[in-house]
Each structure stands twice: as C-alpha cells, then as structure tokens.
Amino acid sequence: MRDRLTTFSILAVVLVIFTVFTASGCVTKGGTGDQTNTVTVTDMQGRSVTVKAPVERIVLMESSKTQELAAIDGKAIADKIVGWDNDFKDYAGDGYVKFVEKYPKLADVPNVGSLDDSTFSVEKVIALNPDVVIMHNWEFMWCGDATKEALIRLEQAGIPVVFVDFYMDPMTNSTKSMLLLGQILGKEQRAKDIVDFYDQHVDAVYSRLAKNAGLKPSVYIETGYNGPETYGITEGDVAWGSIVKKAGGDNIAEPLLGNTSKAISPEYLINQNPNIIILTGRNWSTPGSIRMGYTSTAADTRNTIDAYIARPGWDTINAVKNRKVYGIYHGYCFSIYNFVALEAFAKWFYPEEFKDIDPDATIREYHEKFMPVEYGGTFMYSHY
C-alpha cells in the first residue's frame, strides 16, 4: 500500500507540473519533440503577442533601433538581426558606420524594404524565418494601409509582430518599449537598468521644471533634412514637439498642427517670432542638410546651420537676434536617447536653472554603461 501511495503521489506531482507549464503557454512542443520557451507580451499597440523566448532571429523595421537592441543585448544582437530596412544605412549612416566597424557581419544583413516607400517584401521576411518582426507605432500614422496589410500577411504566415514606440509619445513610451524589448530578448534586468538610468535623469529635469513659475520660451524646431531652400517638417504635440513641451517650452507649431507633423510656412514662423530655434541634424545625404552625429564635427554642424540662419526674414526673428539657435541630433527624437534631448532643451530654455547640467556628459556616461560602441562626434550644438 505504501509503495502504491508513493507511486500515486509521484504521478500526481508530475501531472500538476505538466498541467501548470502547459496551461501557462510557457512551453510548446516543436515538430521534432523539442521544447521551445515562449513569452506572451502586450506591445505598444496594445496587442497580445506570443513569441519565442528569447528571440534569436529578428527582422527589424526602422533599423536604427539596432542601437536600442544593442544596449539591451550587447554584442549578441549582431547575430540576431537577420533582416532589416534601409533606415540605419541611409538615414543614420554615422551610426551604421560605427556599428559595422564593430560588427562587420551587419553589413551583410538583408534589406527587406520599407513600409513608408512601398518596398517592404513580406516574401523576403518569410524566407528569413524570423522569430519576430519589430515594427513601430508611427508606421500606422505615416503608412497606415501598408502597415495593416503587412501585419495581416505576416500573421497569416505565423510570424509574430511586436510594435514599439519611441516617436508618437517618446517621453512616456520609450521606457515601456525598452522593457518590452527586454522581455522578448530575455534581458529584463538589463532593460530595467537602462530605464532606471533614464528615469533618474528625466526626473531630475521634471523636478526642477516643477519649481519654475516663469513664462515659457516660445520654440520652433525644424528637421534639417531638406537643406535651407525648403522648410523641413516640424511637429505639433508629437515627437520633437512633445519633448519641447516636456522640457518647458511653448511649441509654436502645436496650435497649428495638433498631433501631426508637417512643414509650416515661413510667414507663420516669422509672425510667431520664437525665442528659440532648434534645428535637427543627422548624417543625411541631402545637399545642404544639417550634419550631426558620430562622424560629424562641430565645424560641420556650424557650416550647415549657417545657411539656415541666412534664410530670408530670419534676421528679424528673436531667436536669431538674441543668438539662441541650437542643433540636436535628429535620431534623439525617436530613440531611448530622448532623455538627453530633454536635458539639452531644458538647459537651452532655462540656462540659469540648469547651468550645472551637462547633457554631453550624460550621453557619454550612457555609452560607457550600456553601449558596445564608443561615444564621439557632435550630437548637441549651440551656434553662438
């Protein structure tokens, strides 16, 4: 009897363990009898998505987010990205060069096309057999129909899609997106360490701003992609516009644009007469675009900003007359680095209150703590 009871107890324990793991969805049986761990997450579109855990094969849309993945997963990410779009190479070439120097195999990652120019190929993605495709909330705003169609076709093919957001609501959703990436990469603690560093710096800015009862400076921010002859887009209460607002500035474009992004007219800008102008730069190929990033010097940035300041009518704007024109790296708008932009903006808007804050030292420390590549170049710039 004792032997029977012992045998029964063992069988009961085994049955309970099997039931718990099966019901939780943590373990599924593969076709060869192998067991694969999975995790179910809620992405930044509010979708419940189940993916292999940790993911080993990633197709990354907006491939400049390699930097966020690398901060969380380190050098291992070079082996995990099996496909991406042209964003990193064509629009953030300074970062691309930096990472390819460190991890040459990234130069051979296949390009699956982009949603925003109708070159995205579901067939190429399927052929790469990824564990997950990482997309972004902004793709619904800029290329909604293409994004919806791609999502349907990928789901039909059994390929999970996880959405992150570093753009639509950057100061709120960037940390949530990092924690989400930490979940699917199996690096939750590392992601939390990054978020803790982020929150420490953001909270320090917010606590000082809460004590400020003075007038907010009026601010105009423009993407310096087109060159000085054509006005670039600015934002309402989204992306750069939302960061201006969080840093205590009065964004002159918000009443006109709401939650959208587009260029405003020169007449509107001159009539608004902002106190501060911020121009964004990157390693773009457009002639006359503002040069900033890992591979740019302060002289490169100055030389390209000069032509913007020389635009007709800009000599009448308070920001120019009072020598308050600045440059910021465009990639900081839609990346975890936005906390550094917040520090820079607060310092430019309220120089006395933030005179002891050094955004350059902050981003250097972030690189030393979390990034596999060294910091260098020009990411923040004061023209005068």
From TrEMBL:
<protein>
    <submittedName>
        <fullName>Putative periplasmic substrate-binding transport protein</fullName>
    </submittedName>
</protein>
<dbReference type="InterPro" id="IPR002491">
    <property type="entry name" value="ABC_transptr_periplasmic_BD"/>
</dbReference>
<feature type="domain" description="Fe/B12 periplasmic-binding">
    <location>
        <begin position="57"/>
        <end position="357"/>
    </location>
</feature>
<dbReference type="InterPro" id="IPR050902">
    <property type="entry name" value="ABC_Transporter_SBP"/>
</dbReference>
<dbReference type="Pfam" id="PF01497">
    <property type="entry name" value="Peripla_BP_2"/>
</dbReference>
